[in-house]
Design goal:
Elements (H helix, E strand, L loop, with lengths): L6 E3 L5 E3 L32 H31 L1
Length: 81
Amino acid sequence: MLQTIEAVIDTNGRVRLLENIKLGTRRRALVTILDEEEIPTIEKSTVGSMELLDEDLEGGSREIAEMFKQSLEKSAADLKN
């Protein structure tokens, strides 16, 4: 299922989603850079809220744990070969 979610990209290329999303697994994404227009401020979005921060940290931890698990499994498979 495709979803479109509004985001802001800062001058360093960091992407900040302006909506809270939940994904069951890691997903790929395409980024379309729009022409300049008014960019929502932090006050207009949920970015920076404690709820979002907690979920970002929790999601990041799950993603890191999954990547670590996959790396260990690959290393174990490589050692067997």
